[in-house]
Amino acid sequence: MSDSTDFDRPVLVAGGGGFIGGHLVANLLDQGYRRVRAVDLKPLDQWHQLHDAAENLQADLSLLENCKGACEDAGSVYNLACDMGGMGFIENNKALCMLSVLINTHLLMSARDAGTKTFFYASSACVYNAEKQKTPDVIPLQESDAYPAMPEDGYGWEKLFSERMCRHFQEDFGIETRIARFHNVYGPEGTWDGGREKAPAAICRKVLEAVASGKHEIEIWGDGQQTRSFMYIDDCLQGIRLIMQSDLSAPINLGSSELITINGLVDIVESIAGIRLKRTYKLDAPKGVNGRNSDNTLIQQKLGWQPGVRLSDGMRKTYRWIEREFQKRQTEHGRAPSPSVRHIPQ
Ligand code: NAD
Ligand code: GDD
């Protein structure tokens, strides 16, 4: 468990203006950390969440000097900063994804020099060997399935390399590193349009657009048969906390094991919205692997816990948040929110 010294030393959340980083800052403040330092590349007015009780700074953490400043006195560092997004972004921006290696490398060097005790790295299920994800009825991925290495091109290679960098910084320099392999995380206060959104938010937005336009159609990337598991943000935060408090330095899955097809995800969103849409399938859209699920044997064994929020419950909260954001934007653009959005009593 964290000791009182940790509560007094600054905690750095790199990528604090992002989706998970923004939630993590709130969570750390709730845990009692008095000095939470959130740093992000984006100007503060573009952060998903801005917490007044934290120190909020804009800086490019791909630069060593900025990492040194961000890590000053930090007792722990959480690296959630990365140039990434859903399949639409990572398939088309492989070099940008790989450049995130600079962020983790410079943060590790700076944390080591600042005497930081524990360093958290947000890795991804995209590190897993593509051969193990060829069919929708995929066998859940165990931690050992990352090797032999054949990860997602670009983004996955960067994550795998950075995992190893963490491992060797622990072995050679003594900084305690913790690595979670997140499986697709969703929830309120995340990206829901613009090209970086992932399937859960994208499907919510597309359903809202279909309702607002009166054209009751939805375009789905791929054939809709591909499978994923999606983890609600509250589970992600609980997992980060437990992993940071543990002595687990090897990478560990942090994901839901509730497997669903993308068609099944659309079913859930349609039922929340109270609508049925005509589906079209864009087969040449970015699709990624055919199937992916998280094997949670290790996390259950080591931490006595695994993500448990049901997809239908998490999606209801996510849809309602995106619906409010969507309506705000409609109003800002001089259009009244669509009267046809029907609320079903939950
Ligand atoms: P996000 O895009 O919302 O947040 C990442 C933040 O990093 C952004 O706010 C971005 O501005 C910031 N950033 C990018 N480059 C930077 C730089 N040079 N300096 C400082 N800040 C920079 O993404 P997220 O969903 O919150 O993901 C957080 C972490 O978790 C990332 O490392 C991501 O790869 C990992 N991850 C997320 C998911 C998911 O489904 N959300 C899945 C697997 C792994
Ligand atoms: N983004 C998106 N938008 N995906 C869609 C859409 C849509 O409108 N319609 C269908 N999909 C399909 C994609 O084609 C893909 O097959 C599946 O939904 C999931 O897409 P994403 O949510 O974008 O990404 P992912 O699950 O393949 O990968 C994500 O999770 C990884 C961790 O598990 C990405 O966010 C990675 O960056 C992340 O590491």
From TrEMBL:
Upper taxonomic lineage: Bacteria, Pseudomonadati, Planctomycetota, Planctomycetia, Pirellulales
The NAD-dependent epimerase/dehydratase domain, residue ranges: 11-246
The protein's UniProt keywords, in alphabetical order, are:
NAD, Oxidoreductase
Name the enzyme's class: oxidoreductase
Highest taxon in the source lineage = Bacteria
Q: What is its EC number?
A: 1.1.1.364
Name any one Pfam family assigned in the record. Answer: Epimerase
What is this protein's name? dTDP-4-oxo-6-deoxy-D-allose reductase
Q: Which residue spans adopt a coiled-coil conformation according to this UniProt entry?
A: none
Q: Name one GO molecular function term.
A: oxidoreductase activity
